Amino acid sequence: MRQISPVGIQLRRVLEQWRSILTVSTGMTLLTSAFGYIGGLQGVELSFYDAFMRLRPSADRDERIVLVTVNEADLERLQHWPISDFDLARAIEAIAAQKPSAIGLNIYRNLPVQPGHALWRTVAHSTDNLIGVYKLGIPRVEAPEALAEVDRAAFSDLPIDFDRRQRRAMLSLRANEMRPRAQLDLPDDIQLSFAMQLSLLHLERDGLLPDLSAASAASPTIAWGEATFRPLLSYGGGYASGRIPGYQILLDYRGVAPETFSSISLARVLEGDVPADLFRDRVVILGTTAVSLDARWHTPFSYSTLDNLDATPSLYVHANIVSQILSAVLDGRNFLQAAKPTQKFLWLWSWTIVFHSLCVAIACASDKPHAKAQSLTSQLAFGAVVLSGLTIATSYGAFLMHLWLPTFSPIASGMMASLAVLVRQRNSFARLATTDDLTQLANRRYFDEFIERSWKDRRMRQEISLLLCDVDFFKRYNDTYGHQAGDVCLSSVARAMSNAVRSNDLVARYGGEEFAIVMPGCPLEVAERVAERMCQAVRDLSLDHQASDAAPHVTISCGIASTSLGVFERPEELIEEADRALYLAKKEGRNCYRVLVSLDIEVTSSPSPTTDLPAASETDDDPQPA
Q1: Angle at 590 between CA 586 and CA 596, to 5 degrees
Q2: How many angstroms separate the Cα of 311 from the Cα of each of 121, 170, 194, 308?
Q3: Dihedrals φ, ψ of 113, to 5°?
Q4: What is the pLDDT of residues 213-248, one digit of tens each?
Q5: 3-state secondary structure 275-297
Q6: 238, 40 in Cβ contact below 8 A?
Q7: Beta bridge partners of 559
């Protein structure tokens, strides 16, 4: 047989360990991914998303956008709501006088509000950069009639997550009714969002229109100025949704604080108290911020969805979308992208491998099993906590680089891998406590426990057979071939004996080269057949033993004792009987088995009866430590 070098053995062990790590890590990754895809982890992932959004440094104010707000003070001045067509027309005229690039009316205006409806229609028709809003959802709200007549209205609907928070923006949507921008040559069933329409008006002045020539259903990537638009895909980032209607992107908030954008109240506009050129060449959005009007949405910056005061005016949400588009197209600001499903899986798999590898390294760090058993749990817990913190920090770093990766999923998968290591090591500790290192058989401690347990079971006690076996002339074998060869010999003999017994029998290393087999519920005749099989199995190994007087190869001798042939008060008496039978087998030439009974009646496998034997003693074959 070709000998394997120590380096080869070590390499094989490393490869087997890594194969185990990869197998377990892959299994945990698949399990966590499956649980995540059915929505089991979406809530936690979105919570991390919100936390990252709040922790992220605030961006500078976007001076390209000005908000005209209707606050509580404006409502007191107007003394009624909705605002009359007359006041609305006057406000639009005052804004348009400074020549803004686009004016957005983020107020539903599907019905006339007298007085001044005729004036409002005139202003709406003549202000060619004014965009109104309508609502596609339930309940549906139609566009302002005056603006719908000139195709200057857009939907303001935004997708809302299951926890009622606004994290996404919809740039376009296919629908039956068409209200397109003619310049884009869009398919007849596509409608553009309110923020998209305002952005187009601002960018059209510089000839910056999105390049739709290469866009398709299979590849919806769109080039536009300095930006490349990529839609949010199914199961992207921490989402578990398989269907994402329309052209959606993650809403990369610049901020929701009042100082994020320049603003002025509607009352000041109506009073003519507007700084010069405040609106010039800017996107102006008119909308409400008053809490009493309830035109507010919860965002990642909202700590509770139950408190309306913690919500963000819809005006600010649309302003953030416009700012995101303009910043990308004009400034090349990167979009916040959600990781693709393949990226998510590789990210999750990589962290699971890291978790598992660290835990395996911790478990293998000590050479003292009893010391490891005492501290393994705390060490693994500490390692898992450290890696969890590193995972969160890395995910946050990726978020700052505009990539949203799952955060809790790799932690959950890594924790499961850590738990698998802990369970495996605890089982290993239990096995080491009851297993002989060399032969991998039960050790003397477990033998004592097993025979005591079997002895207390009255059903088994009626027929318990015990075999004590010894490797013949093992001291000579060690002296002739060396202790390393002796270790190999004992391991081979142990395997052969284990293969020869019944499934419920216990084979234990009793000491040195001596083995014990406890056979609960086994009559004497079955024990004899098992003993014969074991002797033959060892002979079939054909291990050379030139120093043996029994045979030219390694053999064993066995002594059998059985409760079916005598009365024994304690298991120790049964062990003594088997020991005396073993002495008899050695005395009569070895390489055989013998049976004694406690009533001074001998049953043997050879025609040489012997009775009343003293305790076994052998000067030339004392038990040798392995």
Answers
A1: 55
A2: 33, 20, 20, 5
A3: -130, 100
A4: 655 666 688 889 999 898 988 888 999 866 788 889
A5: CCCCCCCCEEEEEECCHHHCCEE
A6: no
A7: 468, 594
